[in-house]
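Task 17 of the worksheet. Students: predict the tertiary structure of the chain below and write it out as structure tokens. Keep your answer in the requested format; marks are given for formatting as well as content.
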Amino acid sequence: MDNFPIIDPHHHLYDLKTGHYPWLQGPMLERVFGDYSAIRNDYLIENFLADIKNQNVAKTVHLQVEYDHNDPVAETRWLQGIADKHGYPHGIVGFADLSSPDLQRVLEAHLEFPNVRGIRQCLNFHRDPVKTFIDSPHLMSDARWRAGYALLQRYGLSFDLQLYYTQMEEATALARDFPDTPVVLNHTGMPVDRLPEEIEGWKKSMTLLASAPNVFCKISGLGMGDWKWTVESIRPFVLDAIEAFGVERCMFASNFPVDKLFSSYDDIFNAFKAITRDFSDSERRALFHDNAERVYRL
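Model answer:
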């Protein structure tokens, strides 16, 4: 009953012999997901296929993984070569700095590769520098950055949105200002702060962000805020996200190999299956497969 087809719309691959990934090859950094020395080695398509072998993963989407930003298209070029040979990944979300004066050329270069579907530029800004990914807390309101964001619609690209709940009010305004650009929230809105008032703030902010109809939610990455998670500990976050966005705008994802720091691939998808056991077949099909297929045009 549980072996229905799955689309995993958020995973990473990397080849440290041919790519340049400063966070994986340079000094260890303090990151929100803690000690990541266990994933500072190649994670190739063969490794990924071995991890997914017990789940019926029909298609996947690869998210940029902080490849050398001096050549943001190199990662896409490498991934398209893998997809042409193996089928996976079926969709590619590349990196672009939306405030770059070179943005139009970068987007056009990404779009030379048929599997490209969207762009991600991580926007995480937090009072704790360990949890912060960018220098400016308000890129989404910056005129130059927004001019770059406006190009996404012209090129038919979606935007993968990675930030914290404290930034969701600004993100809601952005999504409403550009209603024809699909926005895919990463990692359940990254609820890494677990004081009761912060969880409440996350819930309210998720409801606000969901009020923009062009925003979708990837339920993933919950291990980053709960390194020893269980089905019961992540259940409320999964159900709150679905309550905010609705079954038709959520999708389950692995965040592998980052979440491999906390659990196996089977643990993640079996947890999502357990939490949705009482959902209808059509609701589960939407969450595990159909929504990702529709949003990422797979």
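Marker's comment: The chain has one domain: 6-295. The mean pLDDT is 95.
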